[in-house]
Design a protein that fits this description.
1167 residues; mainly alpha; 31 helices; disordered N terminus
Length: 1167
């Protein structure tokens, strides 16, 4: 689990219950316990007043820390990308505070249950944060209180595009471009569905065009019976010819493929014959070696040669070694005494030095004792070395004396300083006493101070603010009266208005809507009936004609003529034209009789419909008149409800709205009355406080024309000046008294310190005298002399000890020398060497022994090495002889198997076996590449000459090209004839067109419904934007103008709106106004920033100001405008907590330079 960061555990004072009002929430500390790449990092002291800058290089976790704000307040997303390291252990912590000292410690965990706990780990639920959040949800926080560089640039581009009027800009600034994006999405979807003009690719436009085409197709598609059979036969003929052409083409292509394959394998066939002949020729040369002989013979011959070489090489080497051994001596007489010789060689130098020291030490001890006695008498003239108690002192005695000397010096110096300090403090106390006596006494100003404290210093500002509020409310009150078209009324008159209750109005509106709906429905039914009746009458007029229909006699006469012509046509084909005319007339007569029958039926049906509709029209007329009378009566009742309204009664569909508007008007009236009462009270308080202060200050009355607020301010300032003067004098006397008291206290302390220093000096004198007595020195010795004599006595003791050590060391040296001399004599005699007469020859004799011993050791090692080498060579000769016998046995076996007698014959057999194997492998490879069995026989049947095959393939290619042209011609003919046949089948086209029309109509219905829904959403969204503009445009524009002036360093003096129906924003400068598109990119970004920040002020007014977090918003700002933006943010930091995330070091430098030190707080993220 991530390491918990260090947290200052402060008590959660007055943690509010859910639903209580807490304003101005601040995050005092943000704990990145285990979040993203952070592990135990905290951002401390975020609650201090001013601007907080969180700085870190790229990849330091700046964006991670920014995202932690909303995740900590509203919950860690289940699929958050910042859990990649810690997984379910992801957690955040914070300390939240609000007005009134309310604070809360929280820890947010990545859990579905009990995700939020307090500082003690107890679950508290999201409701515990509701009082701190002030009703601000996650979307509002992320879109209004958070702003990054990307969104800032999008806002600047919206300004530059000119597409956003003031309503859209305010909505975009308030919602973080969210409403603007939604509006653009809606309009984009509408454009993809339908456009009145312009592009023709929207879905509805395309469908309407296609519908028009299909209707023309359906109208023109008619069945044509003529030439249908000929076209059908022509299509079948083309199909049959195409099948025959394709069959012949496939046969030619198959034959060409076979001959091409045969042409490709001809080289392989030739190579196969050559290899078979070569294999037969190899078999005639002699036997071929088996695989094991072929693989092993070469290795065996190489091994045989190697073993012969080993025997030839090693035999002379063995003889040489024997000769060298014979020539070497065998002297090893010194080796048994090697240890003794090495010991003598090692110790000889030290023993000779000991002999020299022994000779010198015998007189040195006596000289040292004489010098020590002389030194002792310089301190104690009559003492000898026998008086050890005089110079045998403890080891630490000298250090004790030096410490006492140093301590004595310190105490005398301290005494001198204490005496000087006491003298200075006596002089200072006397001087301060004289200064205090010279100051005047203070007077009693308690009454004036009470009156000054009781007077509210902000009362003039409150009075001015209340007057401005009264003026503003009065204007809004008059505007509300004008909107309702009411006469001039006082607030009291408005509050006395008696209007109908909302329930009665709602009921009356519902009744009126129902009656109006019924009236419109009856009128629509009447109109529909009248339209249907007129349609049937026009239809009946068209069906009634004066033309007499054909009779059955006419029909029988036409048929008799047709039958007679049929009989004649069999004998005389020349009457064909008369026959066809008779057939046409007979068919026309039948068609006219059928048409007349249908018209009779239609006329009867139409007359029946007219008879049914004619009685209903008067009934529907009466119903319409009755509904209209009910509607008039309802309107009279509606007007009676509004007798208490001093204006014309509203329309029935606006009653609820009028009641709401009058309710708001009464609220305005009540607010105006309350403000005027407050104004009178504030004026009365102002006069009362002014009179009391003037009385206490004994001031003259001011002229009657003097403004009350100005007079109050002047009197209050005079009182403050008097109190300041009195406080200054009292403070000066108090300071003088305090200085005198401090000086007297310091004098007492200095005198006490002087007395203590004198006691310390006396005490040290006693300690020093006791030290001298213990050292056996006279009591009058000063410290430096005494320490020097102590050094002499210690030196005496050291010299006596050195002489004693020399005397004690002589017997030990004698014994070492004697032991060494005995070992030397014994070793020399054992080795057959002579013993030196004195110690002078010891070193030479021992060196000779050591040198001879080393030579014998070297000879012994060389002899042993030669013997070892000879043993290895003999072993190699024996092993080679054994291997040669084995190899000869195997070669004899190979000769017997091959029936040969020499090695050369065996090598020839191996060569033949190798050649035979290579040829057989190549032959098998060719056989695998060739077809097998009947297929190979069939291919060879097509010919075996490459020239013949090439000629045949050329002829086949020409024939196949002709067949392809024939096939393509019949394919084109089939397509053409089928299309002609299809065009004759008009009924099928009409059916398809009808089906397509139905499908397109269904799609049009769905698309039209979606377009209407989108239009309704667009209208509602624009209405919301307009409502927000009407309510918040003026204050936001004023605040944004002030901020924009500061951000642009006075280059632009403010903002104003254009005079268009949908006003857009303009930047004011000394040379006129500019549209946003005429501004630079950085200035547009600053304009959008001003709008965004201005919209946040409503949260401060509502008491739900949450922290503002901005991320690298100064990308397009120069250094001076960055500094200006920091000042603007600092001006908001008392109402909002301002946190700036940046990776630019120059922003940190600008903030440190421009902002007061106590209002600039830099928090570094770890690299």
């Amino acid at each position: 689990m991530g390491r918990e960061p260090r947290r200052r555990r402060l008590p959660a004072r007055g943690v509010p219950a859910a639903g209580s009002a807490v304003t101005g929430m601040r995050i005092e500390r943000l704990d990145l316990i285990a979040y993203g790449a952070f592990d135990g990092h905290s951002l401390d002291d975020l609650g201090a007043p001013g601007v907080h800058l969180v700085h870190g290089p790229n990849e330091a976790g700046k964006s991670t820390a920014l995202s932690a704000l909303n995740q900590m307040l509203y919950g860690i997303d289940h699929a958050t990308p910042y859990a990649f390291l810690h997984g379910t252990r992801t957690r955040l912590g914070a300390r939240l505070s609000a007005a009134g000292g309310v604070a809360l410690e929280i820890v947010r965990r990545k859990k579905r249950k009990d995700a939020l706990v307090d500082g003690d780990g107890m679950p508290i639920g999201q409701d515990a944060l509701a009082p701190f959040l002030g009703g601000v949800d996650r979307d509002t926080f992320t879109t209004e209180f958070a702003l990054n560089s990307d969104e800032l640039r999008r806002g600047g581009k919206l300004l530059a595009s000119g597409k956003g009027d003031m309503a859209q800009l305010l909505a975009a600034a308030r919602s973080g471009m969210r409403l603007k994006a939604v509006l653009e999405t809606i309009e984009s979807r509408q454009d993809r569905l339908f456009l009145v003009r312009g592009r023709t690719n929207p879905r509805i436009n395309v469908a309407l065009g296609r519908l028009k085409e299909l209707r023309l197709t359906a109208r023109d598609a008619t069945l044509q019976p003529g030439q249908y059979r000929d076209a059908e036969q022509a299509a079948a003929e083309a199909e049959n010819n195409l099948v025959a052409a394709e069959k012949e083409l496939k046969g030619g292509q198959a034959l060409r493929q076979a001959k091409q394959r045969l042409l490709g394998i001809l080289p392989l066939l030739k190579e196969q014959c050559d290899l078979e002949e070569q294999i037969a020729e190899i078999a005639t040369r002699g036997p071929s070696a088996a695989d094991d002989i072929r693989e092993q013979l070469g290795d065996l011959l190489r091994q045989q040669s190697n073993h012969h070489a080993v025997r030839s090489k090693n035999a002379p080497l063995v003889e040489d070694i024997d000769q060298r051994l014979a020539m070497m001596g065998d002297d090893g007489s010194l080796l048994p005494n090697a240890a003794a010789i090495e010991r003598l060689s090692k110790d000889v130098t030290a023993i000779l030095e000991a002999v020299t020291q022994r000779d010198e030490s015998s007189g040195k001890a006596a000289r040292t004792r004489t010098e020590a006695g002389s030194r002792l008498r310089t301190v104690h003239p009559r003492a000898t070395l026998a008086d050890e108690n005089l110079y045998r002192l403890p080891a630490a005695f000298r250090a004790t004396g030096q410490n006492l000397r140093d301590e004595g010096r310190k105490r005398h110096d301290a005494l001198d300083r204490a005496r000087d300090t006491a003298k200075r403090h006596r002089e200072k106390s006397e001087r301060l006493g004289k200064q205090l006596s010279s100051l005047p006494a203070s007077e009693d100003v308690t009454l004036l101070k009470n009156a000054y404290t009781a007077a509210p210093h902000d009362l003039p500002d409150k009075l001015t603010s209340t007057q401005a509020t009264e003026k503003k409310l009065a204007q809004r009150f008059r505007q509300a009266l004008n909107r309702l078209e009411l006469p001039e009324l006082s607030p009291a008159d408005v509050l006395d208005l008696q209007l109908p209750e909302l329930g009665r109005v709602t009921e009356a509106e519902a009744g009126h809507r129902e009656l109006d709906k019924g009236h419109r429905e009856r009128a629509a039914e009447l109109d529909q009936a009248q339209r249907r009746l007129a349609t049937y009458r026009r239809k009946l007029d068209r069906l009634v004609t004066g033309d007499a229909p054909p009779t059955h006699d006419d029909l029988r006469a036409q048929r008799a003529l047709r039958d007679e012509l049929i009989t004649r046509f069999r004998d005389d084909p020349g009457v064909e034209a008369s026959f066809q005319e008779a057939v046409r007339r007979a068919d026309t007569t039948v068609d006219l009789m059928l048409q007349h029958a249908e018209e009779v039926n239609k006329r009867a049906e139409t007359e029946r419909e007219i008879a049914e509709l004619e009685p209903t029209v008067p009934e529907l007329q009466a119903a319409v008149e009755e509904a209209h009378a009910d509607l008039v009566q309802a309107r009279q009742s509606w007007d009676a409800l509004w007798e208490g309204l001093p204006a014309a009664p509203p329309e029935p569909d606006r009653g609820s709205g009028i009641l709401d508007a009058v309710g708001r008007l009464k609220t305005e009236a009540q607010d105006l009355q309350d403000v005027r009462i407050d104004l009178r009270e504030q004026r009365d308080r102002l006069h009362a406080h002014t009179a009391r202060l003037k009385n206490l200050l004994r001031l003259d009355d001011a002229p009657p024309s003097t403004d009350a607020a100005v007079l109050f301010t002047e009197v209050l300032s005079t009182a403050g000046t008097r109190l300041d003067e009195h406080d200054a004098a009292a403070a000066k006397r108090a300071v003088a008294q305090r200085d005198l008291d401090n000086a007297e206290a310091e004098l007492a302390d200095a005198e006490a310190a002087e007395t203590g220093a004198e006691k310390d000096v006396d005490e040290h004198g006693k300690q020093w005298r006791q030290f001298l007595d213990n050292a056996g020195l006279p009591a009058d010795r000063d410290s430096d002399t005494a320490l020097a004599e102590l050094d002499i006595l210690l030196q005496v003791a050291g010299e006596v000890d050195a002489a004693t050590a020399i005397e004690n060391a002589l017997p030990q040296a004698e014994k070492r020398i004697s032991d060494f001399e005995g070992l030397l004599r014994e070793t020399l005699r054992s080795c057959g060497r002579s013993v030196p007469a004195s110690t002078i020859g010891w070193h030479q004799a021992i060196e000779t022994l050591a040198r001879d011993l080393q030579k014998q050791r070297d000879d012994d090692r060389e002899r042993q090495g030669l013997l070892d080498h000879k043993s290895k060579l003999v072993k190699q000769i024996e092993d080679a002889s054994l291997e040669l016998r084995e190899i000869e046995s195997r070669l004899q076996d190979f000769r017997a198997r091959l029936g040969v007698s020499t090695i050369a014959e065996m090598e020839d057999a191996v060569t033949r076996a190798r050649d035979l194997r290579e040829k057989s492998t190549a032959l098998a490879k060719i056989q695998r590449a060739l077809p097998s069995g009947a297929e190979l026989t069939q291919l060879r049947g097509h010919g075996t000459s490459a020239d013949e095959l090439t000629a045949e393939l050329a002829e086949l290619d020409h024939r196949i090209s002709e067949l392809e042209e024939t096939r393509d011609g019949w394919l084109e003919q089939r397509t053409t004839r089928r299309e002609a046949l299809g065009r004759l089948n008009g009924g099928e086209d009409a059916a398809r067109a009808a089906a397509d029309i139905a499908a397109i109509c269904a799609e049009l219905a769905e698309d039209a419904e979606e377009f209407l829904r989108l239009e309704a959403a667009r209208v509602a969204l624009l209405a919301c934007m307009e409502e927000y503009r009407d309510s918040d445009q003026a204050p936001i524009l004023a605040q944004a103008s002030e901020m924009f002036t500061k951000l642009s360093l006075g280059r632009y003096t403010g903002l104003e709106l254009s005079d268009e129906e949908r006003p857009s924003i303009r930047a004011k400068s000394s040379t006129g106004t500019l549209a946003p598109a005429a501004l630079s990119e950085g200035t547009r970004d600053q304009l959008y920033l001003a709008l965004r920040l201005a919209t946040l002020e409503r949260h401060a007014a509502a008491g739900n100001a949450l922290p503002i977090a901005v991320d690298d918003i100064f990308m397009t700002f120069d250094e001076r405008r960055t500094e200006a933006a920091l000042h603007v943010l600092d001006s908001m930091a008392d109402r909002f907590q301002v946190i700036v995330f940046t990776h630019h070091e120059h922003v940190i430098r600008s903030a440190a330079k421009e902002l007061p030190k106590e209002r600039c707080h830099v928090h570094r993220l770890p690299d």
